[in-house]
Amino acid sequence: MSRYWTRLDNAALIFPAVRRQNWTNAFRVSITLREKIDPVLLQQAVVDLMPRFPSLYVRLRTGAFWYYLEEVTQPPAVRPDYAYPLTHMGAKELRTCCLRVFYHQNRIAAEFFHSLTDGSGGIVYLKTLAARYLMLRYGVEIPAEEGVLDWTEEPRPEELEDSFLKYSGKVAMSRKEPNSYRLRGTREPDGFLHLTTGIVETKALMDAAHRYNATVTAFLAAVMTKSILSIQNQRRYLGRLKPVKITIPVNLRRLYGSSTLRNFALTLNPGVDPMLGHYTLRELCGIFTRQLALEATPKQMAARIAANVQPQQLTPLKLAPLFIKNIAMRMVYADIGERKGCLNISNLGNIALPSAMQPYVERLDFIIGVQKTYPNNCSVASCGGITCINMIRNIRESELERQFFARLVELGIPVTIESNER
After folding, report:
1. Which of 376, 377, 371, 337 is nearest to 179 (CA)?
2. Which of 23, 100, 192, 289 could form a disulfide with 188 if both were Cys (CB 3.0 to 4.6 A apart)?
3. What stretch(es) of the chain map to CATH 3.30.559.10?
4. How far apart are CA 86 and CA 84, in angstroms?
5. Alpha-carbon gap, residue 39 to 72, rounded angstroms
6. Is the pLDDT of residue 112 over 80?
C-alpha cells in the first residue's frame, strides 16, 4: 500500500529552507492531567491515532524542486520529558518523524515541526490524543466534540487541504512596512531555553482587558509594548527610538470556516512609534484593538495570503531547483521574516473540552520556540478558568518577563510564576 505524502502548505515552505544547525521553528502543546501518566497506554493512544492524522505522522523529505512530507511507517515512540521544552529538532530527526510525544509525571506534551501544522491544529491533535488516553486508562466515553475528533473515523479531505491556496485573493497586498525595535541579550552558549510561566485566572485577565475596552490579545500586546518601550528607553544611547511592534498570528479558520489541520494562520505586526510621544496603557489598548480589527478581515487577509501564494505559482520559481528556492526564501526571510516585530504573542484563546474530559484535566499549555533572531517569545492558552502565559528566551537577561508580569500584578491580576531556571 502506498504511503500518504503531500507538498508543504504555503506557510510551511519557509521553515525547512531557513532552519539552521542550532535552530528549527517548532512549538509545543501540553495537557496536565490529575494523575500520573501511564507511558504504555500513552504509546497505545499514539498508535491508535496514526490513521486519523496522516498529515502529522510524517517525515520531511527532499525532492529536486520542493520539500515534501511523507507518512512514516512507525509512530513516534513516547519519551520521558527531559532537559527543557523544544530542544533542537535536527535534520536527522526530521527525516525520521516531525512529531514528538513526551510525558512527565501528570503531563502529556506534543512538539511539532512548524511545517506540519500551527497551534490550532496541534491542539486538535493533543485533545484527541488525551481523550483516547483517558478512554484506555479509565474506560470513560468521550464524545467527538469541542475539537476532539473521532479517532475511528477516516480523515476528511478538508482536514488535509492547503487552505492558503483555496482562500487566496486575486490582489496581493504589499509586504512593505517599517522595521521594528529588536530585543537583544546575552545568548546562552549551549542553546538552553529559559521558560517562565505566568498562571492567572482567566476571569481576572478578561476583566482587566474589558476595563480598557480591549480583547485579551490586544491587552496583552499593549502591556508587552509598555514593557518593551521601557527597555528601549533604558538602553537608548544615541539615535532615534524605533517603532515597537508585536507579531500576532491570526487563526484564519475563524475567518473562512476552514477545517484544515495543516497551517492556516498569518501574522500581523501592529505597533506604535515612540518618536510620536508617550503612550498610556489605555491608548495602547485602543491602538492594538483598532489595528487588529482593521487588518484581520477576510478581504485584507486574502490579499496577504495572495502576497505569499502568487510568487509560489510563478513558472520560473516552479522550475527552479530546490537549492535556488532555498536561497530565495532565505533572502525573503532575512528581509521581512523577523525584522518587522519585537516578538510574537500567540494566543490560542479559550480552549474548550468535552464535559467528560474536564474532571481529568488540570491545565493546558502552549509554548512557541524562539525565532531565528527573536531572543524572546510569548504564547498564551486558557482552559478551565486558568490562563497560562508562557514566555521563552534563549538569552540570560530576564528583564522583559519581570517587567511584563509585574505590570499585570500592578493592574490587579494576581500571577503565579513557574520557571525552569537552572
Report:
1. 337
2. 192
3. 5-166
4. 7
5. 21
6. yes
Cα-Cα end-to-end distance for the chain: 49
Cell representation of residue 262: 495543516
CA proximity to 196, closest of 418, 422, 380: 418
Counted residue by residue, the chain has a size of 422
CATH number listed for the domain at residues 5-166 = 3.30.559.10
- Residue 101's nearest CA partner among 55, 193, 39, 59 is 39
DSSP string, 239-280: SPPPPEEEEEEEETHHHH----SS--EEEE--EE-GGG----
| Full DSSP string of 130-194 | HHHHHHHHH-----S-TT---TTSPPPGGGSS-HHHHH--SSPPP------------B-TT---E
Could you give the CA distance from residue 53 to residue 112 in angstroms, rounded to a whole number?
A: 13
Answer whether 160's CB lies under 8 Å from 6's CB: yes
- State pLDDT tens for residues 231-277: 999 887 667 899 999 999 999 999 999 999 999 999 999 999 999 99
Identify the CA nearest to 103 among candidates 50, 51, 34, 43. Answer: 43
Rounded-to-integer distance, Cα 420 and Cα 84, Å? 8
| b (16+ CB within 10 A) / e for 370-380 | bbbebbbbbbb
Buried-exposed string 11-27: b where 16+ CB fall within 10 A, e elsewhere: bbbbbbbbbeeebbbbb
Is residue 150 within 8 Å of residue 47, measured between CB atoms? Answer: no
CATH 3.30.559.30 occupies which residues in the chain?
Answer: 167-419
The closest of 20, 334, 30 to 191, measured between CA atoms, is 20
CATH code for residues 167-419: 3.30.559.30
Neighbours of 313 (CB within 10 A): 11
Q: How far apart are CA 62 and CA 414, in angstroms?
A: 49
107-113 vs 99-104, strand pairing mode = antiparallel
